[in-house]
């Protein structure tokens, strides 16, 4: 029986916070945009591009308020919560627009940002009172932490069973071996001892880290083991899965201690994270790095699907009753986005979208049933390539042209991060299900590219970030709130 | 007390005869009867093409044309020879004038052909744009945008809009987005001007009807204004119809009016009646003015829908309703 992710106290807190928001929101409404994605799905890039495009009124022909001339402008504002760092928009932009541009480093801590959007409503009533404003709140966080959300519904025994089953899979044998050996040598019923707990936790963390490096595995909770932030070494992070114990045990046993710590981890680390940042969202974008999973093979694809389904099940989606609206906030629009669409030719975007649809099919069904509107798009928040075609052996191949990152290799050639190449990454399968089948030889190779080198400037001298369908994503996510 | 009776009224059907055994066939033998699926193009948005002539009509026109041109040629020949007979100098002058006339006629004809082709291009463009939207085909949509840029290449008022389209299109990957962009940037300003033209025409018609002494005068004026309006709107959207082009355009507009009754789907007839009723209360002539004005509005809307090279997707369709306040306001002012 899965547990409820929140407790009654949390629910009360959430309802009160919503009420406070509703009260202040009657002057300036706030829209909380949840940017969801596993690690390296492109959350930071997406947020940076979003902020930059809104601030500079970038090239967004599909963003209705802008093309209809109703969008007046945007500015960054102070975030109401003083204890959380601000999203380092300027540094990220600098990285992307440097002389030799590079992608920002992966996110290691939580940060947030508020943008104030000014627009004129086209509606008869709202338009009469002149320009309106809308606060757009965005949170950036390490994608690893997202994997913790399903833990809220699992007890220690359930989680241990799941984690050990995964460690014992033939695929993860090599990485898990040291941890499993250590586990065998320790009796969970012996009296608790910090030394043992630390040894176990260390071995377990090691296993998680190594399996992430070796495969593109996405389902590896607890996420803070990989990116502890300032919790490193604290008791809440010093636990590991243990085999289930049938009979009753003393409260001083190792098992009881680790179970206690697991619960503490859930209560003090995961639940506040969920409550403060995910329980009160209005809109959600789910970024999925499909191409990386495709590169890694069927196991990774299946893994990605499981992870997405279990993570997305934690969010509150659906329509809200009009009477309850001051107390309840639910996600009423979800966009599923296959990121890095610039790494394939635009003729393959349809297939990329159908693969994405297959990956999030369960999550979509659930969201639609709850009454939320969903859409899926192949996007690239920043387009790093351009397109061309090449003739080889009498057939014309659609290629993408860009500079692969240093260390990327194809056909035995390793690139130095300076040479521009034209790449034909292989045809995406027409039938998405074939990606899950082991026997099917999928000959795909997607390289990672460095950010675009030469950027255009618009009439005001601001840099224009090229993108793929980013404007449509934006229009779906916030366009209707600026109507 | 009678006993209950049951009698069969029909012979029981033999059930076994109805059960058909399962069989398998080769697909090659099967006659495929699946209906072809056409992405639903809104038929009312596309003007019905003029009906091709039957063979009899064609023969009549052809024969008549041959006779007429033979007659004209003969007349010209006789005129020139008469002129030569009078005076050689006069003959040469006549021949020169005839040459100039012929060259001018050829140029005119070429222009007419071009104008007719342009109308056809606009029609094809509308179909293409609808298809590109339905199928989300970026290549087709970019083709549409290229032809639009070609049509409006000489228009100074659209320079900025053209530039904005040209800047954005290379970065777009969805057919319907490209068409929507073109409609928003290129069509929207033209729509606004076409609406202004229509409103101005309708106002003039209403005013003339209200003050004209004879019914014949207002009918003549309505026809005159409608023709002028249709021509102006066609020129605005880049059709520049010549004489024959205009003839075809008129046919298409009339056909459109006949199909829709001049009403757009969302237009309520009630509002029109209310508007007219109010004006008619003030004065019978004013009521007639509003009616005639509305007729002109319908012609303007039909012309817009016939010549506009893109279907209405992102922009609102012009509706009779939009013009009513202006008409009633005008007649109200006149009544004071």
UniProtKB/TrEMBL annotation, chain A:
It comes from the Bacteria. InterPro entries: YcjX-like. This is Amino acid regulated cytosolic protein. It comes from Devosia limi DSM 17137. The lineage of its organism: Bacteria, Pseudomonadati, Pseudomonadota, Alphaproteobacteria, Hyphomicrobiales.
From TrEMBL, chain B:
GO terms for cellular component: plasma membrane. Its main location: membrane. InterPro entries: DUF697 (IPR021147), UPF0283 (IPR006507). The keyword Repressor does not apply. It is found in: Cell inner membrane. Keywords: Cell inner membrane, Cell membrane, Membrane, Transmembrane, Transmembrane helix. The chain crosses the membrane at residues 55-76, 88-110. It holds the Pfam family DUF697. It is a multi-pass membrane protein. The keyword Transmembrane helix applies. PANTHER family: UPF0283 MEMBRANE PROTEIN YCJF. Belongs to the UPF0283 family. This is Membrane protein. It comes from Devosia limi DSM 17137.
